[in-house]
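Key result, reporting period 2: structure in, sequence out.
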């Protein structure tokens, strides 16, 4: 999956813009093949099936030319550390083919297309048998997995036989009863196959983890870590399996050894991906991973890349998307050191990506503990963040601006924040952020711009409790801009959240200086209940009255 760098503090740092999660430059480690090559790969699978039908599902021997068939899971696929990765990728491909066939069977069964149902059952049966035999030839199969294999093969054969019986009758009552029976068997086959694949994947992942734990070679460990990272891009289910097999523990062992310092960044990037699931965070908590992250972040001898990836892990584990907050108890113990290191990383970031990761972590932290906001004010964070906004090398995308304005919005609940924003000409910056527009038709960029506008309006409303801030905003023509955002759906990209925030900010300014609002605008945007003004503006056509 393509990872964006943290579009919002509610996203993971591998889900945003070119990170968002989001929110995390695309860092995808998946197979780099063009469409023609992929078609040729898939064609091998399909033609292999026909051979297997003729041979009645007997395994094809591994001969000298076996490297031409990607279906064979053997150590001859490639040399050294690439074996486990190739085995996993082949296993995933075969699993996808079988899953696709089973999905087709469900659809064709519902439509009563019995000829198609049977032919699909035959293909699925052959694929499963081929995969089981080949995998068994390449690996030692655990006893529990052997039980699943035996049961799965029996159910596949039963499925083939029962669908064949349906070809030789037109009895609707019989076919109806068979449809129910086939659906039940097909469901069992799908569940059994899923469990078997999970076990096979776990078996292969164990190979990579053992290489990380037992090798003294930086090259070997680095290759295994990269292979694990590649697997994390295949979705949350695989991340859960990787976490359960102990990958987080193994990776933090690497991060605690000085001789592997050059691997810290790669190891932490993989940890961040694994921690997109709860199991990964639980494993991190068990090995005191937060203390290790704090050590790396506060170690001035650590390279920037390692500190940036440590920030990515912090952003991941503090994301409000996670339902479990148990791990945050240990985080609070190191919070002052982590926040201090993160704001320093923002100040000295050499590029936009590093700034994005550090600011995303800070944005998430300010959501769950007000003490973090107080620490940031003491560390002169308002000055550092607003200065960064003037530096295009650090703040170069709406995603980065989203993080900055999120932090400012959370800081603005504290009274001392207003004077610091005034000193740094922060009101002018907020008005510029109210005009944020996407530079491309990308939906994620458009959504990021909406969040920037919304949070800029929220921050302005909160800060305008201070009369000096309110007066400065009015002098800088904040009111006409807020009215434009309220009345013009295209200016706010038809966002209701931006509309509500702008109405709230407008009412706050009008309360301090009623003369800044025209009579017509007051009648429509200030005097009615907020919900009535919202309904009026959300339903109106383009208007600049």
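The corresponding designed sequence is given below.
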């Amino acid at each position: 999956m393509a990872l964006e760098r943290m579009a919002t503090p509610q996203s993971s740092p591998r889900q945003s813009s070119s990170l968002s999660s989001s929110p995390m430059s695309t860092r995808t480690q998946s197979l780099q093949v063009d469409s023609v090559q992929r078609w040729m790969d898939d064609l091998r699978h399909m033609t292999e099936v026909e051979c297997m039908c003729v041979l009645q599902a007997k395994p094809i021997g591994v001969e000298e030319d076996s490297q031409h068939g990607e279906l064979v899971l053997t150590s001859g696929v490639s040399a050294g550390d690439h074996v486990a990765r190739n085995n996993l990728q082949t296993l995933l491909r075969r699993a996808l083919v079988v899953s696709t066939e089973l999905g087709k069977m469900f659809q064709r069964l519902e439509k009563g297309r019995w000829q198609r149902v049977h032919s699909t059952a035959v293909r699925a049966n052959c694929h499963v048998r081929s995969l089981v035999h080949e995998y068994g030839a390449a690996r030692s199969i655990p006893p529990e997995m052997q039980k699943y294999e035996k049961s799965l093969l029996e159910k596949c054969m039963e499925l083939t036989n029962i669908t064949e019986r349906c070809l030789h009758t037109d009895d609707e009552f019989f076919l109806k009863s068979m449809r129910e029976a086939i659906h039940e068997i097909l469901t069992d086959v799908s569940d059994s196959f899923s469990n078997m694949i999970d076990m096979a994947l776990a078996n292969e992942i164990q190979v990579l983890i053992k290489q990380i734990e037992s090798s003294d070679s930086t090259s070997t460990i680095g290759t295994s870590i990269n292979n694990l990272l590649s697997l994390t891009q295949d979705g949350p289910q695989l991340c859960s399996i990787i976490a359960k097999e102990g990958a987080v523990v193994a990776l933090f062992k690497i991060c605690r050894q000085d001789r592997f310092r050059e691997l810290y960044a790669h190891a932490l990037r993989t940890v961040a991906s694994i921690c997109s699931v709860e199991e990964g965070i639980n494993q991190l908590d068990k090995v005191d991973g937060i203390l290790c992250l704090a050590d790396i972040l506060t170690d001035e001898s650590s390279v920037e890349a390692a500190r940036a990836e440590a920030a990515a892990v912090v952003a991941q584990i503090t994301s409000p998307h996670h339902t479990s907050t148990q791990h945050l108890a240990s985080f609070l113990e190191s919070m002052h050191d982590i926040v201090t290191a993160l704001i320093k990383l923002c100040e000295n970031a050499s590029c936009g990506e590093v700034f994005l990761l550090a600011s995303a972590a800070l944005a998430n932290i300010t959501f769950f503990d007000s003490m973090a906001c107080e620490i940031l004010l003491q560390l002169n964070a308002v000055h550092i963040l607003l200065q960064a906004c003037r530096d295009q090398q650090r703040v170069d995308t709406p995603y980065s601006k989203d993080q900055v304005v999120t932090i400012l919005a959370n800081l603005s609940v504290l009274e001392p924040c207003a004077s610091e924003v005034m000193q740094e000409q922060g009101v002018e910056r907020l008005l510029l952020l109210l005009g944020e527009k996407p530079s491309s038709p990308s939906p994620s960029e458009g959504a990021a711009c909406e969040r920037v506008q919304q949070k800029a309006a929220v921050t302005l409303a909160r800060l305008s409790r201070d009369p000096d801030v309110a007066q400065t905003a009015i002098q800088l023509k904040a009111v006409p801009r807020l009215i434009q955002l309220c009345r013009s759906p295209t200016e706010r990209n038809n966002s209701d959240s931006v509309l509500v925030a702008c109405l709230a900010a407008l009412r706050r300014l009008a309360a301090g200086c009623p003369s800044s609002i025209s009579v017509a605008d007051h009648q429509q945007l200030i005097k009615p209940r907020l919900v009535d003004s919202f309904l009026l503006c959300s339903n109106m056509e383009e208007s600049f009255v």
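The chain is about 70% helix and 0% strand. The CA atoms of residues 347 and 384 lie 6 Å apart. This case is discussed further under Risks and Mitigation.
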